[in-house]
Design goal:
167 residues, mainly alpha
């Protein structure tokens, strides 16, 4: 029960961190391209899809982390167990955030290629909804493709106990 509460709080804090990072990325890229009192709909749509993609990737942390919390007590106890769980969760979160940044970079690159060199952030600042919808489609497609391999990548980090071989 306490493990589930700890996992829930960790995922919520990770979600808040992810939303903060994505919001900062969009705001920094669009800052200076629009006036401060202007709030185009395309910015809100782009942020919403980025938050959705971040959430889709964060979901993939839960199952490997639960598996790890079942495996680690056979090797560690007390404070070492808690430190190992925090360490592995941090590794999972770091990989997830790095994957998300790479996906955003690829989606931006693919949008530039498909739209003949246009920048998605300039198009967003100009409130070009057609461009934002195309970018969001590319971003969701890449996120769903990367989501499929994220759990298996996390499983590689779980320290399963080795079974003795008898001859």
């Amino acid at each position: 029960m306490t493990t589930n509460i700890i996992l829930l709080s960790a995922v919520l804090v990770s979600g808040l961190l992810t939303v903060f990072i994505l919001n900062s990325i969009v705001n920094s890229r669009i800052k200076g391209k629009i006036s401060e009192n202007e709030n185009p709909l395309s910015v809100d749509i782009q942020k919403a899809i980025l938050f959705l993609c971040g959430g889709l990737l964060l979901i993939e942390i839960v199952d490997p982390f639960q598996t790890m919390t079942k495996v680690l007590p056979s090797s560690f106890t007390g404070n070492n167990l808690l430190l190992k769980e925090i360490m592995f969760y941090s590794i999972f979160l770091g990989i997830t955030l790095l994957t998300l940044v790479v996906i955003i970079w690829f989606a931006t690159l693919m949008f530039g290629v498909t739209s003949k060199g246009k920048s998605i952030f300039i198009e967003t600042a100009n409130n070009n909804l057609n461009a934002v919808i195309i970018f969001c489609g590319i971003l969701l497609a890449l996120t769903l493709a990367a989501k499929a391999g994220l759990s298996s990548l996390f499983d590689q980090f779980i320290p399963y106990p080795t079974m003795p071989t008898y001859h």
